[in-house]
Amino acid sequence: MVGGGQLARMTHEAGIPLGIRFRLLSDTPQDSAAQVVQDVRVGDYRDLATLRDFARGCDVITFDHEHVPVEHLRALEADGIPVRPGPDALVHAQDKGVMRARLTALGVPCPRHRIVADPADVRAFAEDEPGATGFPVVLKTVRGGYDGKGVWVVGSEAEAAEPFRAGVPVLAEEKVPFTRELAANVVRSPHGQAVAYPVVESVQVGGVCDTVIAPAPGLDPEAAARAQHLALTVARELDVVGHLAVELFETADGSVLVNELAMRPHNSGHWTQDGAVTSQFANHLRAVLDLPLGDPRPRAPWTVMANVLGGDYPDMYQGYLHCLARDPGLRVHMYGKDVKPGRKVGHVTTYGTDLAEVRERARHAADYLRGTITE
C-alpha cells in the first residue's frame, strides 16, 4: 500500500484476519500506518525509482491516497505489477477537470462547471454565459485539494484572484443550493463483481466531514437505489477496482448531483467497520486481490460515525474512562496521530435502533474526547 495514513492503518487491520501481509510506502516512520505495519519502506511516492524498488515482489499495489503520478503507475504496470485502481481510473480522482469532463460525457448529473483562465473568466462563467446562475461561484484547483483545501467560494471577480496563484488550472462550478450531502460507497473487483453499501448522509463542518449517518435518514428507497446505481455505473465505466466513494449533493426536488470521487476507503465509509457485515476496508482488500466480495449490509438499523478532531487537550486517552464507562457499546478508533487543533485523530461509531439516541452517543463521545464538553 502506497501511503501511510489512517486509511492504510485501518486497511492493514482488516487484512490481519485474512492473513494478508502488507508492505507500506510511508512518508515517515511516524505515520499512522507505519506504527503498526511490520514491513515499512520510507520514501517519496513521487520518485519512480523508489516506487519500482518498493513494488518489487508485491502481488498488487493499492493506495490510501490518490496522488501518485499516473505515469509512474503505468511504468509499474509495464513492469508487470498489478495496480488497483489503475492509472486510467485513478486520474479521475486526481484531476477534477478530467473527472467532470468524463462524468458529463457519461450523462452523470454534475453541477454546471468549466475550466477558467483568470478572474475575468470567472465573472463570465458566473454572469454572462447561458445557464449562468450568478455569484457566488465555487472555485477549485483541479489537483491536490482535500478536506476543504484548494476550494474557494467567491462572491465577485475581485475575490477570485487567490486560486490562480497556485499556478494550476482552476475549475469553476455553480454553487449548488443543496439540502444535504450524501455519499454512495461501492466496491468493484477486477472481474466486475460489485457491491453497494447503504447511501449515507455526510454532515460537513468547515469543509471537513464531521458526522456520517447510515443509512441517510428520510431518503426515499427509490432515490437511494438510484444513487447506488449511479455509483455502480461510475465504477464500471471508469473501470475502478477497489472502493469508490461518490460524494453527492441532494437538492430540494430529491435529485442528486455528483460532487467528488474518491478511489480508496473513504471517511463516509468508516461506519462500516462496526456497522456493516463486511467493512469498506475488508472489501477494498478483497477487490484488489480479486477475492469474492463480502456482504455490505448493515448490522443495525442505524449506525453513526463521528470524527474526533484535535482540540486543546493533547492527551485524549484520559477521556476513555468517562466515554467507555458511559457507553459500553461505543467503538473508538484512534489513528496514533499527534493531537493538533482541527486535525482528524480518530473516530467513534455507535449503532442501535433509535437514531436520536445513537447520534447523541456518538456526538457526546467525539466532543468529550476533543475537550469541547467535560461532562
Automatic annotation (TrEMBL):
Q: Which UniProt keywords apply?
A: ATP-binding, Ligase, Nucleotide-binding, Purine biosynthesis
Q: Name one GO molecular function term.
A: 5-(carboxyamino)imidazole ribonucleotide synthase activity
**Enzyme Commission number(s):** 6.3.4.18
Which top-level enzyme class is recorded in the Swiss-Prot or TrEMBL entry? Answer: ligase
Annotated InterPro entries: ATP-grasp, ATP-grasp_carboxylate-amine, ATP_grasp_subdomain_1, PreATP-grasp_dom_sf, PurK, PurK_C, PurT/PurK_preATP-grasp, Rudment_hybrid_motif
Q: Which SUPFAM superfamilies match?
A: Glutathione synthetase ATP-binding domain-like (SSF56059), PreATP-grasp domain (SSF52440), Rudiment single hybrid motif (SSF51246)
User: Domain ATP-grasp: where?
Assistant: 100-289
Q: What does this protein do?
A: Catalyzes the ATP-dependent conversion of 5-aminoimidazole ribonucleotide (AIR) and HCO(3)(-) to N5-carboxyaminoimidazole ribonucleotide (N5-CAIR).
State the family it belongs to: Belongs to the PurK/PurT family.
Per UniProt, subunit arrangement is: Homodimer.
The name on file for this protein is N5-carboxyaminoimidazole ribonucleotide synthase
The protein's organism comes out as Streptomyces spiramenti
